[in-house]
Amino acid sequence: MDVLVVAFTGDDGPGLVHALAEVISDHGGSWESSHMVSWHGVFAGTLVVTAEADRCEALAEDLRALDGMLQIHVRAATRTPVREGVRSIRLDVVGRDHPGIVEEFTAAIARPRVNVRCLDSRSTQMPGGGQELRVHAHLEVGGGTDLHAWFDGLHDLARRLDVELTLTPAGE
Question: Which residue from 132, 137, 144, 168 lies 20 to 30 Å from 89 (Cα-Cα)?
Fold first, then answer.
């Protein structure tokens, strides 16, 4: 089985998920995982599909043919080589939102070449005014990274920005 990663956006409305599922089913594909959301009238998401290798091109073309309902980008997945010594870390940040805060954290995360596997964030109105930011990320930290120095740097940044930061091994 080959793997396709599908990314899409469009105006929100009924029938969009069914249209995707119908095309996948028509080609004998399997809907493996997805993340979809509607924000401010825009429906967006990602979807992982598996299908027989000889059916993937036709499946991708029929997904792209949904243009008008959704703007769709389909890409064949590549196999990621197994990296020795990789650790999975969960990062959670909660605090007052301000312009540039996500950039500051992503810069600090990237310095030792940490791979962001998943990142979810949300800014919501706080009682009494202001916005609260919540960030949840799953990270892959490569072997050879000085975890203590990296953790200390992230905690220093959190103190400077006055936010709560939690780092835990993924799965705990």
Answer: 132
pLDDT digits (tens, 9 = 90+) for 32-49: 999 999 999 999 999 999
d(CA 28, CA 89): 36
Pair 83, 117: CB distance under 8 Å? no
Who contacts 141 (Cβ-Cβ below 8 Å, separation ≥6)?
86, 87, 88, 89, 112, 114, 147, 150
Q: Is the pTM above the cut of 0.90?
A: no
What angle separates helix 56-64 from helix 16-26, to the nearest 10 degrees?
A: 160
Cβ-Cβ contacts under 8 Å for 145 (sequence gap 6 or more): 112, 113, 114
Q: Show the tokens assigned to 62.
A: 């029929």
Provide the 8-state DSSP code for 70.
-
Over residues 140-156, the mean pLDDT reads 91
CA 80 vs CA 4, 77, 83, 134: distances in Å: 14, 9, 9, 29
Q: φ and ψ at 122, to 5 degrees?
A: -155, 135
Q: Is the pLDDT of residue 168 over 90?
A: yes
